[in-house]
Amino acid sequence: MIRFTVNGAERTADPVGPESLLTTLRDRLGLYGSKDACEQGECGSCSVLLDGELVCSCLVMTADTDGSAVVTVEGIADGDTLHRVQQAMAEGGAVQCGFCTPGIVVAAAHLFEAHPDPSEEDLREALAGNICRCTGYGAIVRALGALSERAE
Amino acid sequence: MTTITRPDRIDRGVGADPIRPDAPPKLRGEFAYSSDLHAEGMLWGATVRSPHAHARIVSIDVAPALSMAGVHAALTIDDVSGSRVFGLEHPDQPVLGDGEVRYWGEAVAVVAAEERETARLAAAAIEVTYESLVPLTDPEDAERIGSTFRTIEIVNGDEDARGEVVVEGYYEVGQQDQAPLGTESGLAIPDGEGGVDLHISTQWLHADHGQVVAALGLRPDQVRLHIAGIGGAFGSREDLSLQIHLCLLALYTGRPVKMVYDRAESFVGHVHRHPARMWYRHEADRDGTLRRVEARILLDGGAYASTSAAVLANACYFAVGPYQCESVVVHGAAARTNNPPAGAMRGFGAVQPCFGYEAQMDRLAETLGMDPVELRLTNALETGDHLPTTGQLIEGSLPTRRVIESLRDMPMLDTTSGDPRRLPGGTGLTTPPSSVRRGIGFAVGIKNLAFSEGFDDYAEARVTLTPEGLEIHTAAAEVGQGMVTVLEQIARTATGIESVRVVWNDTSRIGSAGSTSASRQTQMTGGAVLAACESVVAEALRRADADGIDNQGAWRDGDLVMTLPELLAEGPIEHLERFRHPQTELPDEHGRGKIHAGYAVAAHRAVVDVDPDLGLVRVVRVDTAQDVGRALNPASVIGQIEGGILQGVGLAIMEEIVLDDGVMKNASFTDYLLPTILDAPDVEAILIEEPDHWGPFGAKGVGEPPTISSTAAVAAAIRHATGKPLTRVPVRPEDIVGL
Question: How many CB atoms are closer than 10 A to CB B483?
Answer without folding.
Answer: 24
